[in-house]
Amino acid sequence: MKLKEVLNKIKFWEGKDLDLDDEIDEKLDEVEGELSKKDKKFFKKLNKKVVAAMVIAAILISSIAGVASFKKASAKTNEEDMTITIPVAKQDIQKTLAATGTIISAEESTEFATTGGSYPVEEVYVKVGDVVKKGDPLYKLDMTSMEQQLSYQQQALNIQNQQNELAAQTAEAALKNAQDTGAVSINDANRSLAEAQQNQSIANRNRKSADDALGDARRAEDNAYRAFNSAKEALSRVESNPDSTQEEKDTAQAKVNNAKSDYENAVSNRKTAETNLASAKDAVDTANRSLDGASQAAGKAQTDANASVITQAQSVKSGELTAKASTISNQQEIAKSKEELGKATVFASQDGTVTNVNIKVGQTYSGTDAIVIDNVTSLKATADIDEAQIPNIELGQKVQIKTDATGDDVLEGTVTFVSPTATKNSTKSTDSDSTTASVSKSRATYRVDVTLNGTNERLRLGMTAKMTFIIANAKNALAVPSADIQTDFDGSKYVVVQKKDGTTENVTVTTGISDDFYTEIKDGKLKEGAEIVENSSEGGIDATLDDMGADGGIYFE
To answer: 283: which of 38, 72, 187, 379 is 20 to 30 A away, CA to CA?
Structure first.
């Protein structure tokens, strides 16, 4: 029941200060027995705001584990100053964060064809509610177009192989022709070189003969010259001898003439030998030049032949590589097509129950959630937590979960996933100190998954889960109502304690964690059983009511 409904029952909203008469008692009786007769009598003298505050506390504390001690509190009232005190007691305090989530499967898979293209659905083998095992066929695609494409690719590969064979034969023939042509050119160049070498040898021999002949001619010329001079000397002696006869003179003259003739012939022969030697030298030079030319021609013929053979051999190799690359490319396309055809049937990737079928026969579908499979026996809860509260959520935190289907049963769970990034922009808004996430402007939210510690046969996928995250725990802690803790001017916290003589004093406290209504006191200055004066300032009941919001903010089970 909402708090708002409780207040309506006692006509709180009419704004009148009235004593609680029998009519009010009757209204309080309608609050399903949450207040005892003793409690109702106690409220008789109080104005309606105090009544509302006490009703809130009574109902909440009677519904929260560990705070039953509140009912034992003896609220002391002075009819003149209306001072209300509450005894300090020990109780368990939990700092919690409430969120609304959804029951989902802990194991869910979206099954779809991982094909590169879109194909019409040929058959669907399952329907929603079917139980499947991993590996069971779910649906099949009509891939006739891919089968035709594969056939064309295989034909193209056969044609390509034939073309490659012809190209290889042509390249091999060109290589053989280059080798033969090069061999002929090299042989012809080598024959020319051999002839040039032979001509050079002949020219060298002729030069040597001419050189020898010139030497002989020069020696013959020297001998003829000396003989000519001897003949002239003999003639001179005969002519100078008065006793010489004419015959002796004629004989001496004839010898001179003969010697002269021999000398002139020797000079002519020597000149001829010199001319022959010069011609022989020219012939040697010509032979040497011819040999150099033939040698260079032979080298060029060898180089050209080698280059031609190498070029053709490279052409053969290049053709082989091109053919191989083309073949591999075609084979890869064929392999891709075969792989694509292998994806025609989609199989279940896990055991579970089919919870969604988004395809039908004849439909061309390329989405990622054609069929959804959930393990309905392994469930978890998930919620989107507001950006202001997500820092309070940690892995391993305990969570209490309730659903309408499971009634009063509280399911225990553990936080097993906290998204590091915002999952969406929600319409949730919350103050950083709030313990709920609800309504208003767009804000970032973060997905949190909670693994359930047990199972409940009444749980179903998609159910709304009311989740309470246990942010912090304080067992058997000394506690006071949060509304009764006040702040001094220096920022320190204190509560007003009523002494036995009725006077009051401010006691400084160090606070710990807080739940919706109580705060842990961590130091030893405040003792159990001490009477705390109810705070009537803005931090008291009025502030508590304001914090709850216009709609009451809290549900009572």
So the answer is: 187
